[in-house]
Inverse folding.
């Protein structure tokens, strides 16, 4: 019924530790002995409870399936995560490997929790008359994100395991098992879990859930399109990087946190001596502890290494921004790019403000959590304005919400003008909450992307309240009025001093 290989992370890597001769050998042997007991050995059966609840679904027993998830599978996952988190070794490579396995367990736990949430929501709505009204869209989106994360974690872990096997003669890796597990596809995972969920819906509601299978097919097609787009972006960046000194500035960069150090490396097509600025933001506020001015060398490259204390590595999310700002460059470079960057063009070029004054720069962004092992790649954005972009009759709508342990990543669409100020706050109706706020500026196509802190509640409705104001830049004040008096439409709310845009997104029950 299900392609198990595509649905769950299966740890089929087989390590062989030769006779222990020193402390490293003893630590590796102790670690893999535990792994054998839990997931790798012949007697280990890490998916036994998963197969048990699937069997209950196949037999038309949804309540029993949910019971197995809640009372067997999830407690087992929590125990594994806790066990491997608490393991300590002297060997740094083994600690990194242990961390990779812990991440695998955590992602699998997150997946099973999301499946549990979906099953519970279906049970709660079993009296629904129209299957199309079943409200699980957000949960399916979250599950799709987890599948993408699964593949990323799997690939990173694979590289690390191969590095360990190459570094230590006493450790061997089963290449056949590695090759057998090598191709993981988020689209296939989406399709398989949607089949599982569709079957669960059918036995709970008595309704046919073919629409969900169509979602799976469409999701597969969308993921293929996304891969094709990413591949085309990579080719475009390669072409742009080859044109040194072009006004179509391009970046290709990545960052990671390793051994309490922030490491950044990147390439550009900027002239030698140009400056790339690194700025970081925590819920929209600039983070003063991580910033830099990086000089571009003759090849267009730049890099940095910064030590980070344990206190800073608190797991909080950061938005990283790399920027080239011609207004801060020497006259020779301003002749190429314009005194205020007005000659810049291409996908990386857009406006920014400095004390409300609008200038132009080249930018690329990435998300990174402040913890050892965190990795990220800076991306290229493609913007497409809505037909009514800049209209006074303002609209906003949710595009996508990704739920993390302590925060949300939210993307909104709107027809607001670029650089308009946006504030967001996570609230829990019926409770007094404060401090769960974030802010951002509207992007070139009216879209908004920001991190919002996640309230510490369980089983309660969470509502994100957005407010847009006209004071982001001189041009937004000219368009919407200094006090927002030109804002119009259902979202425009008049206050004592000004008019603002207000919009709410109900995320449903947090769990």
């Amino acid at each position: 019924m299900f392609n198990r290989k595509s649905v769950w992370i299966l740890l089929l890597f087989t390590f062989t530790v030769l006779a222990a001769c020193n402390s490293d050998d003893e630590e590796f042997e102790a670690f893999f002995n535990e792994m054998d007991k839990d997931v790798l050995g012949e007697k280990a059966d890490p998916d036994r409870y998963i197969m048990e609840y699937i069997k209950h679904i196949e037999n038309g027993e949804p309540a029993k399936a949910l019971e197995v998830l809640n009372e067997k599978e999830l407690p087992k996952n929590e125990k594994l995560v806790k066990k491997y988190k608490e393991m300590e070794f002297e060997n740094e490579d083994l600690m990194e490997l242990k961390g990779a396995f812990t991440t695998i367990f955590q992602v699998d736990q997150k997946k099973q929790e999301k499946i549990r949430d979906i099953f519970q929501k279906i049970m709660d709505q079993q009296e629904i008359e129209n299957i199309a009204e079943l409200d699980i869209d957000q949960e399916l989106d979250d599950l799709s994100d987890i599948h993408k994360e699964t593949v990323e974690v799997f690939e990173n872990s694979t590289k690390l395991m191969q590095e360990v096997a190459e570094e230590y003669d006493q450790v061997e890796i089963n290449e056949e098992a590695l090759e057998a597990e090598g191709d993981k596809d988020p689209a296939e995972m989406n399709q398989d879990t949607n089949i599982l969920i569709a079957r669960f819906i059918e036995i709970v509601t008595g309704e046919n859930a073919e629409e969900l299978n169509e979602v799976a097919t469409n999701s597969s097609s969308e993921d293929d399109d996304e891969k094709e787009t990413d591949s085309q972006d990579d080719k475009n960046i390669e072409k742009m990087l080859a044109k040194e000194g072009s006004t179509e500035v391009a970046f290709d960069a990545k960052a990671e946190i390793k051994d309490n150090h922030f490491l950044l490396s990147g390439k550009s097509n900027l002239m030698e001596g140009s400056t790339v600025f690194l700025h970081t933001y925590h819920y929209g506020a600039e983070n003063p502890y991580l910033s830099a001015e990086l000089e571009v060398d003759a090849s267009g490259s730049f890099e940095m290494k910064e030590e980070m204390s344990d206190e800073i590595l608190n797991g909080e999310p950061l938005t990283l921004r790399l920027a080239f700002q011609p207004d801060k460059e020497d006259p020779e470079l301003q002749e190429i790019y314009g005194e205020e960057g007005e000659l810049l063009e291409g996908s990386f070029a857009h406006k920014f403000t400095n004390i409300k004054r609008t200038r132009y720069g080249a930018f690329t962004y990435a998300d990174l959590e402040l913890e050892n092992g965190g990795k990220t790649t800076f991306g290229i954005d493609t913007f497409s304005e809505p037909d009514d972009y800049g209209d006074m009759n303002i609209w906003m709508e949710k595009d996508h919400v990704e739920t993390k342990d302590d925060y949300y990543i939210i993307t909104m669409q709107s027809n607001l003008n670029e650089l308009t100020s946006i504030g967001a706050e996570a609230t829990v109706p019926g409770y007094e909450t404060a401090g769960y706020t974030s802010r951002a500026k509207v992007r070139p196509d009216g879209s908004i992307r920001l991190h919002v802190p996640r309230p510490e509640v369980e089983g309660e409705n969470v509502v994100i309240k957005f407010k847009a104001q006209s004071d982001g830049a001189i041009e937004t004040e000219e368009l919407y009025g200094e006090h927002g008096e030109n804002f119009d439409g259902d979202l425009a709310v008049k206050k004592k001093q000004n008019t603002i845009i207000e919009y709410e997104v109900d995320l449903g029950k947090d769990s």
User: Anything to note?
Assistant: The CA atoms of residues 78 and 109 lie 7 Å apart. Confidence is low (pLDDT under 50) at residues 1-15, 215-221. The longest strand covers residues 357-369.
